Amino acid sequence: MERDCERKVGFGVFFVLLLISLTSLLSCGRSDPEDESEQNYLDSIKPEQIQKLSRDKIVGYAKSGVGSNYVWGGDQWDPANRTWGGADCSGYVGKAWAVPEYTNPKAKPRARYTTYSFYHERKLWSEIPREKAQAGDALVMRRDGEGHIVLFVERTSDGGYLFMEAKGVNYGIVATKRKTMLDGYIAITRKTLEEESLSASPSPTPSLSGSESSGQQEQQEPGTIPVVAVQGTPGSENTTVPSNTASGSYSVVEILSENGLNLRKGPSAEEDLIEAIPQGQKFVAFAKKGNWYNVWVDGRAGWLSAGVRGTYLKVSNVKDQKVVHISAKKALVTDADDAESEDSLATLLKDQYYVVFEMEGSSAIIFLANGFGKIEESAFQTN
């Protein structure tokens, strides 16, 4: 039986570390809710209260945790700071599945499920044959009081299987490739799923309890910047740029709202939702209408609200930030944490601008909607 969350301790280790290690052996994650009120809340959740997610959104959210720490009983991490926070296996999968509720990676959920819950309960998820597992499904094991749960990503070309999991204190949250489909585990699937691929039009994501849920910014100020349509940009019907397109006229916006912000197709809370973006991410804004900023995110254009009081976004001059200008016709973004991965996280288009998190040799690590991605030197110029 695999025991990825086990922490082995030698005879010469201090007694206090031994106690901590024995605690981690009991289960990959917490075995029960912290208190009765938490359990009552979980018991009250009904399937119709859980917002629908696409499989791509589940996997995309889970990727934001890869590289962070393993913390027993944890369920918070910071995509911009891998040394902050961490999660155990059930906290990690529960966040990616948005059960019982959606929270951004840094936020503490009101309650959480455990490996015992995932293995035995069937209210919000169902057991499926393991060979039927698809991206975003999970595999869970419980035996002799121990448990572990992993998120299934894909079957690999060489016949193996790719998972993401909070594997243990010696590993952290990682993507792991295995030769088998984890003997002794059962497969479960979230009941409320939207089936669509990344190539499809943007799907609704869980609404955040930050700016837009308050309704404060639904009354917008009139636009003050002359704008013209951008040609050849995805979603160009909602894409505008200042008539003066020099990069010096752009701004950089950083999300300050603890609950993140919703990226929308237009400058209104009534517009369709594109994506939920966590606190701390930074983007280049190329137009402004009232208290809404038009930004490039993962190759697309969308709108972020600063809120009526301007407290949801920090706005700074683009000259004060390191940004890249996409000079190639197209630029593929790859996984910043997996040098061997050839999968593209996004496709950026010529003359878009992105904020640099750090330089890695001649490559740039840039901010994405959830986490970071890498682009090669041949695709961009720096300011």
Rg, Å, rounded: 22 Å
- Give the number of domains: 2
The CATH architecture of the largest domain can be named as: Roll
> Could you say which overall geometry the principal axes of the C-alpha atoms support?
globular
Total strand segments: 26
Uncertain residue ranges: 6-27, 196-248
Ends apart, CA distance between termini: 53 Å
Helix content: 10-25%
CATH fold-level topology of the largest domain: SH3 type barrels
- Lateral strand order in the biggest sheet: 22-21-25-24-23-20-26
Structural class: mainly beta
Number of helical elements = 5
What would you note in describing this structure?
Helix 3 crosses helix 4 (89-97). The model is unreliable at 6-27 and 196-248 (pLDDT under 50). With 383 residues, the chain is mainly beta. Helix content is 11%, strand content 36%. It has a seven-stranded antiparallel β-sheet with strand order 22-21-25-24-23-20-26, with no helix packed on it. The chain folds into two domains: 15-194, endopeptidase fold (from Nostoc punctiforme), CATH 3.90.1720.10; 201-383, Roll (SH3 type barrels), CATH 2.30.30. The longest helix has 11 residues, at 15-25. The termini are far apart. It is built from five helices and 26 strands. It has helices spanning 15-25, 36-44, 55-63, 89-97, 115-120; strands at residues 53-54, 75-78, 81-87, 125-128, 138-143, 146-155, 161-168, 172-178, 186-190, 193-194, 227-229, 240-242, 251-255, 261-264, 273-277, 282-289, 292-297, 300-305, 313-317, 323-326, 330-335, 344-349, 353-360, 363-368, 371-375, 380-382. The radius of gyration is 22 Å and the shape is globular. 44% of the residues are buried.
